[in-house]
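Researcher: Good morning. I'm working through a list of sequences from a screen, and I'd like to move beyond sequence-only analysis. For each chain I'm collecting a predicted structure so we can compare shapes side by side. This is the next one on the list. No need for commentary yet; just the structure.
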Amino acid sequence: MYIPRANEEQRVPVLHSLMRAEPLAALVTLSSSGLVASHIPMVLEEGGSPLGVLRGHVSRANSQWRDLEASVEALAIFSGPQHYISPTWYPGKVEHGREVPTWNYVVVHAYGSLKVMDDKSWMRAHLERLTNENEAETAMPWKVSDAPEEFIETMMKGIVGLELPIGRLEGKWKVSQNRTVRDREGVLEGLSKESTPGSLMMKRLVEDAM
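Model: Good morning. Structure tokens for this chain:
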């Protein structure tokens, strides 16, 4: 990923925080016919690798786990907040007109050697962890054990586990760091006026980078 120095985020806790907040990853691997991507929720766990380990699963019918070039790194992409930035928000739009639109966003790329985990006990532990994390904020959290055991056993037969010990992490926080303070203040005003959940989230990120 191309990352200008101003946009580079190297702090592992910050990268991990986004991965946990936005767990739906685009998992990209190389197959015999080219690149393949699946969009799957992944659980980040500490230990097993200095940068953590990602665990997920795909349908057994998904050929990605079978047709996998294991010698080539897999890539898991975690996308965070993003927002269009209008050139009308910059003072220069009125003063000289030499402004263009752009897009602000944050993203994390996690690379590593992907392992297929076709193991019942591994899968059960993974599903419980995945469910518990995503049900934590609900009023009455659902647990895997809430469903009939024979039903869970049947469902598990239809999926295959994937494990990715993270070998390297890249983070890109493109949140107007390359602009002047005056321009960034214009971006903050524009995002504030839109007053949508997405614009206000991006506003906080721009503020944090100032």
